[in-house]
Task: inverse folding
């Protein structure tokens, strides 16, 4: 019976494998996502191939394990090193994901160019050696210790890497690679799984850190998809509005460091530039506040970040009011507008509301609610909020302002950047605020309005 099963079915959303077709994936609940793929002759489905560490033959006492020689390798880009938790760990597999054109190849080529002496094997399946050379020149030079290898068969790549023993290997991109013996096209789920598993095994066994590049589709999935996230040690995701020049690299998984940290880059004519202090870039430089803007404090991992929230409220031209939000959940915007209407009596039902987060940021920290509410009211009444005021608080359904995590650090960061006043929830607990900044505690939206727009 089992010999008959020449093909298997994969969920194209989560990578779940099934011997037969199903309308709905039992693992992730998505409909119509099962695709048929030739079975990898039992290879890739064998769990022993997805090793997370170099195999050891015998168990050891915890106390006998020495980690002091766990040396991280700097990639020459301070912000990337910080995201990784202080450099790349030897033998780790790091996935850099992002939409096409966002700058993955640029960033990964900048690593060997910036880090003199780092012997790098740059494997490309997307571009010719000439194209890579042209890009290197654009990025300001090619006098680095970098080997370019145009190859797409993972066995050949690993063979070459094993004999060269580079300090770092970069593989651009997983979707273009294939493994001999897996009978499906490059980019299919079974190929991606096999390629990633092979590279992981190579990394663990040789100690060479591997950076793997993967495309993410518009709806945010790493094409090929969740399965890759499970295999690799670290996932760094590139985000950004394509129109803007700012790019955010976010760590969404890290076996060797913290997650949800971000690094900000600016795409320039000569590659990506690290923005060491993103708050300063995201805050506008005007002495007086403009109506419709409010400064929010967002937490990125462990670091507070201040940025501008912009709102435009105008009378609806057509019958129904439009609501649109860039970088912010539009359902949450609708909820906040409903709270303003119901709990504070502002009639916004017939108004168009547009919301924008400066710098192409995508926000999911609830602490930004307060600034959203203030930006909307400020635009509605054409009442500028002073430029030295900022906000950190979550707004609840009954109009109450709820405390948010790490209020202390947010206050310190605001003070460091020269803000004179920060609005927080009455229920926040924090230590003594630094001198020079006034912390205004507000319990609910009506009180906030009184304190701000009186
Ligand atoms: P790229 O790194 O090729 O994206 P990905 O590998 O994620 O698909 O980046 C492509 C974009 O970056 C392209 O639109 C051109 C732009 N770019 C610059 O603006 N400046 C530069 O120095 C480079 C190399 C690219
Ligand atoms: Mg590319």
Result:
């Amino acid at each position: 019976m089992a010999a008959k099963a020449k093909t298997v079915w994969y969920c194209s959303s989560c990578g779940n494998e099934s011997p037969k077709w199903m309308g709905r994936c039992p693992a992730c609940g998505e409909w119509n996502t099962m695709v048929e793929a030739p079975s990898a002759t039992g290879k890739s489905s064998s769990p022993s191939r997805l090793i997370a560490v170099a195999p050891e033959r015998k168990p050891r006492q915890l106390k006998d394990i020495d980690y002091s020689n766990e040396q991280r390798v700097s990639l020459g880009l301070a912000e990337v090193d910080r995201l990784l938790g202080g450099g790349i760990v030897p033998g780790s597999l790091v996935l850099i994901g992002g939409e096409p054109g966002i700058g993955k190849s640029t960033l990964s080529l900048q690593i060997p160019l910036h880090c003199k002496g780092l012997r790098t094997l740059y494997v490309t399946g997307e571009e010719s050696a000439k194209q890579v050379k042209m890009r290197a020149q654009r990025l300001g030079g090619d006098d680095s210790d970098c080997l370019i290898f145009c190859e797409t068969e993972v066995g050949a790549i690993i063979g070459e890497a094993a004999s060269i023993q580079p300090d770092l290997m970069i593989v651009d991109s997983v979707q273009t690679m294939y493994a001999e013996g897996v009978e499906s096209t490059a980019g299919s789920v079974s190929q991606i799984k096999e390629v990633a598993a092979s590279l992981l095994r190579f990394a663990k066994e040789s100690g060479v850190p591997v950076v793997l590049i993967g495309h993410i589709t518009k709806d945010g999935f790493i094409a090929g998809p969740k399965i890759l996230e499970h295999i690799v040690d670290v996932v760094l995701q590139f985000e950004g509005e394509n129109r803007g020049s700012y790019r955010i690299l976010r760590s969404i998984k890290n076996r060797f460091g913290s997650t949800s940290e971000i690094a900000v880059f600016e795409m320039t004519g000569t590659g990506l530039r690290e923005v060491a202090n993103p708050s300063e870039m995201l805050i506008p430089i005007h002495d007086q506040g403009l109506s419709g803007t409010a400064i929010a404090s967002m937490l990125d991992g462990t670091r507070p970040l201040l940025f501008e929230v912009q709102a435009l409220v105008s009378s609806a031209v057509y019958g129904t009011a439009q609501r649109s939000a860039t970088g912010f959940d539009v359902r949450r915007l609708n909820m906040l507008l409903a709270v303003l209407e119901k709990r504070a009596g502002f009639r916004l039902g017939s108004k168009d509301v547009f919301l924008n987060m400066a710098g192409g940021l995508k926000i999911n920290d609830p602490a930004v609610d307060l600034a959203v509410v203030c930006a909307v009211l400020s635009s509605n009444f054409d009442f500028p909020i002073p430029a030295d005021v900022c906000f950190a608080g979550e707004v609840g359904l009954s109009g109450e302002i709820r405390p948010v995590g790490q209020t202390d650090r947010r206050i310190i960061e605001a003070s460091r950047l020269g803000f004179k006043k920060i609005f927080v929830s009455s229920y926040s607990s924090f230590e003594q605020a630094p001198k020079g900044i006034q912390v205004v505690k507000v319990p609910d939206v009506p009180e906030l309005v009184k304190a701000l727009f009186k």
Summary: Residues 76-276 form a domain with the Rossmann fold fold (CATH 3.40.50.300). The CA atoms of residues 305 and 437 lie 17 Å apart. DSSP finds eleven helices and 21 strands in the chain. The longest strand covers residues 303-315.
